[in-house]
Each structure stands twice: as C-alpha cells, then as structure tokens.
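During the no-cost extension, the postdoctoral fellow (Dr. R.K.) reprocessed legacy sequence entries with the updated structure-token encoder. One reprocessed record is reproduced below for audit purposes.
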Amino acid sequence: MSALALAPVPAPTPSWRTDRLPQLRARVLGGGPTGALTALALAQAGWRVQLIDPLSGSQLQARRRAYALSHSSRMFLQRLGLWELLSEVAVPFRSLRLCDLEAGRAIGFGLDDVGSGGTRADGAEAVGWILQHQPLMQRLLEQLEAHAGISLSLGDVASPGGNAESSGSAGPQLPDLLVAADGSASPTRRSAGIRRWRLPYAQACLTAQVRLRGSAPDQAWELFRREGPFAVLPLGDGTTQLVWSAPAERLGRLEALDPVAFLDALATALPERLQPEALLERPRAFPVALELARRFHRGSLALVGEAAHRCHPVGGQGMNLCWRDVEELQRQALRAAAGELPPAAVAAAYGRRRWADVLLTLLFTDLLVRIFSNRQPLLLSCRRLALDLMARSRSLRHLSLKAMTLGPCRLPSRWSQ
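Re-encoded structure tokens follow.
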C-alpha cells in the first residue's frame, strides 16, 4: 500500500468556521450590572459587542442598592480580571449569623467553614462581600468604554431592541447573538413571544440604609421571622443595608413613617443587641415574586439575568445567579470563537445548560421563605433540630455554605482559584 493511500484525508471545514468565525458579533440589550458584565465577558471571548440601553451612563449609576456577592461571583470575576478592581469597593463579611427568631435558635458561619472538609481554604478571606450599585456600575462602565471590542449606545431611547426572529435586524449588521439583559419586565422577551411563570409572594421587601450599634463591621445577619426573612448587610463604617421582608401592607406603612418612627419600628424587629442609630436614606418597598421564563433562548436570542428568572432576595442569591448566567454564556461563546460550536447554536447551548442551576436555586429560596415564615409546630421542631445539628457539625455548615455561595450545581473541593 502506498504512502499516499495511508495519508489521512482532512475533513471539510464547516462553512460557519471559515465564513463567520472572524466576524462574531453580539448585541446586548440592557446596561445594568448583568448586561455590562455580559458585554465584557463576550468581548473577552473574542466577540465584537454592542451594548444598548435607553438610560445614560449617569442614569445607570444612579440606582441605590447593594448586592451580596458570593464565591461563585468572585471566582468568575477573577477569571475576567475584574476582581482586583471591584474588591477595592467591596465590603467583605467574615461572619454570617443566621438566627431563627421564631424557633429560638442561631448558628454562625465563619472563615473556618469556607473550605474543604471544614478546614479553611487557602486564600479564603471572606464568607461573602457586599457591593453597592454606584461604585460597581462606575467601574464596569469604565471597563466598557476602554475596551476596543465594545461599542456603547447609551441614553438613546430610539435604539432598536431587536427580537428573536430578526436578531436585531434594525442594526447595520445582523449579530450572531442577541442577549436580553433588560430586567424582569424585559420588552425583548415579550417581543420574542417567550412567556413566563410568575408566582407573587404575599410578602414584599423594603430596603434602607441605617447606622447600627451592636454588630461587628464585618458581620452579616440573616434573620428568619414569622413575617419573613430580614437581612442586615455591612457596608462599612457602621453603615448597614437592610432587606426587610414582610406583608406588603405593613411595609407600605413603614415606608411612610418619619425617620424617628421608622427607627422605633425597626428596633422592635431586630434582636436586642442590634440598636438602630440613624436612618441614612428613605426606605423603599417593592413587590417580590418568583419568576421563570418558559425558555431561555429563541433562535439567536439568549435571556440572561432577571429577563430569564427572578427569586426572593433571601440568602442573597439573585445577583450571583444572574452572573452565573453570564459565566455559562461566555463558556459557549468561547466554544464558538474556538470553532467548536456554530455561532447560531450558542444561545441554545446556553439555554440547555442553565436550567438545573436556576431551578434548584429558585426552589431553594422558595423553600426557605415558606419553611421559615411560619410558626407551624411540627416545622418549628424540625427547624430546631436542623439548626442544632448544624451548630454541632462543621461539615454540615461547610456543605450548607458551599451550596449558598457556589450554587447548588457546582460544589468543587476547593473554593479559591
């Protein structure tokens, strides 16, 4: 047999690899934290990205809110090269106190619970971090403006949103990927005809910033009360962010109180050791619901963040779940940039891989709210037993903290990169 006969015959190169690979383009609709991070992640994957939002840069920064960041977000930001920049303004909490005020039990999570087998992981500096919206958006917008592969269209109310069929056909060139990161009311999702399931909670949430005595500057609190969960998050310099869940009617009354009356009402809702000193901003209440899109993609359209799902803020899962969307979308975009996946299949591959994490996280937060927001005697007994066991077992605390901070579908043996 001749050498020529033994030579392998090269497989034909798919046309999408030769014709489309150098031209990979994405359009991201929505310039909030999730949309901004999506644009940066896709640009780092080698795509050219256009980011569109009807709000200007200053308007995108104006929102008053704080986010709890977990280790899943920290690890992703490190891979993007953004963690060093954002850690400058992130406030670490090294202790998390979980108190079931109805069952009369409390447990603490600390750095020793962040690791493998109950031992502290190398480089574990915090249980989590609190990051305020304004400095977060300021830094993300600076990165967007400096990136040569990203074009910004901010503050233009006439900017086209596109849809799943046209994939942004109103633009000068069809993108290979259209990303809807335009929030829970997503007009892009509606125009694509993607319906959602929505389960409103009887509770609403109220947020406010207050100065408190009695809490360490690096300690966060998750309080379970009959009327709903109550989070106290450190912002530095004695300032805390409150996320207060209660019936909407009650929160509406609290929102209307003068500062002195509000602080008096707040004192009755907190453990005795936490004493409110000053109200630093006007409290604001908002409705809460469990929301889930019936599909996460259509054609070249991918839904990320609250355009795809929304959960109760208990446990600080919302932002981290949204950013795990971005992480998976970048993973599929990298496959397309490497020629391993047709660009037209990126949205579908992303959508298939996000269901397990999203469903488990929504189920987890919903169960927390329903189990801990009542005084049913049998459940009270079960809660006491579970918290007693967790208080005595470092392994149980370790596993619980992993599920909360890495996501239920990613529990590696090591936490740090």
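The CA atoms of residues 227 and 246 lie 5 Å apart. The two ends are 52 Å apart (CA to CA). The remaining legacy entries will be reprocessed before the final report is submitted.
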